[in-house]
Each structure stands twice: as C-alpha cells, then as structure tokens.
Specification:
The protein is an alpha+beta fold. Helix content is 40%, strand content 29%. The termini are far apart.
C-alpha cells in the first residue's frame, strides 16, 4: 500500500500486472517461467503508481505449491529501493567527483615537481602555464602575482584561445 501510495481497498482484488508497465510485465513473465520450474528468484522491477511515477523495487518471489507439488501461485515480497537507488546515485556522483579531484591534484603535484628544479621565475611561469593549460584543457588561463611591497597585481601569463599576451600590472 505504501509503495503504491494507495489505500488497501484500492489494491485488493487487482492483478499485479495492473501496477506494471510493459517492460516490467515482461520481467515478471520471465521470472514466472523460472518459478514454474519450482525455483525462487530475487529480481528488480519498477511498480507504476497511479500518478505515473515509478517505484524501483526488489521482488523476492517463491512458488506456492499444493500438496502434490504443483504450482498454484507465487508468493512475493516487495522492497522499495527508492532510497537505496538515491544513495547509489549519490555514491556514483561522489566517486566521479573524487576521481576528478584526484586528477586535478595529480596535475598540481606534477607542476610542483616540475617547478622544484627551476629557479627562473619567467621559466617557472611558462612551465606551470603550459602544464596546467594542457592538462586542464583550459581555453583561458592566467597567472596573477601579488607584490606586497608595491601592492600591485601583475599578470605575467595570460592565454585566451591560441593568443598569449603580457598583461599590465594593476594597483
């Protein structure tokens, strides 16, 4: 009742297939063929609510047998997987974000390693700019340096598209 968001009175007497779209009906038909062989199964389906939304569920179904071992029906237990699906999607999103951050940190680490042997500021700027621009596939990239004594910000490197230019200082 809760899964379908319907009162018990509206569900009793209805066919299970009334709560499925064609794709999920086919899944249940296939699972019923397995059950006719006397086997239990655990599978995912989505129930269709009257408002048209789908509810992802896990169905644990087993055959019901008479005294002679003939199948007379099925017994199923449905579990709503909505929250679990949301958590899986969030986990997937966070994993992708973590991989992206790790890739960015690897680039920064590489730049740091490349710069440790360089003492010429202009060469360091060029090396860092090239590495970052290529690694991040940046269309526009600039490096800004702040001079504490003069309170000026300079842009020793600025690249937009294929153009690279020297920028003036800003006070």
């Amino acid at each position: 009742c809760e899964i379908l968001d319907l009162p018990k009175e509206e569900i009793v007497g209805m066919n299970f297939f009334d709560f499925l779209d064609e794709k999920n009906r086919e899944i249940v038909r296939e699972q019923n063929r397995i059950r006719k062989k006397g086997k239990q199964s655990l599978y995912e389906i989505s129930l269709l609510r009257p408002d048209g939304t789908f509810v992802p569920c896990l169905n644990n179904a087993a055959p019901l047998l008479d005294e002679e071992g003939n199948m007379i029906g099925s017994f199923g237990m449905l579990t709503d997987k909505t929250e679990r699906k949301k958590m899986e999607q969030e986990t997937t999103r966070l994993l992708a974000e973590t991989r992206q951050r790790n890739a960015e940190l690897a680039i920064i680490n590489q730049v740091g390693q490349d710069l440790t042997g360089e003492l010429d500021l202009q060469k360091m700027i060029e090396l860092a700019s090239e590495t970052l621009s290529e690694s991040l596939k940046a269309h526009t990239l600039y490096i800004a340096l702040y001079d504490k004594q003069t309170h000026k910000i300079s842009f020793p490197y600025y690249k937009a598209g294929n153009r690279q230019r020297q920028q003036p200082s800003i006070t």
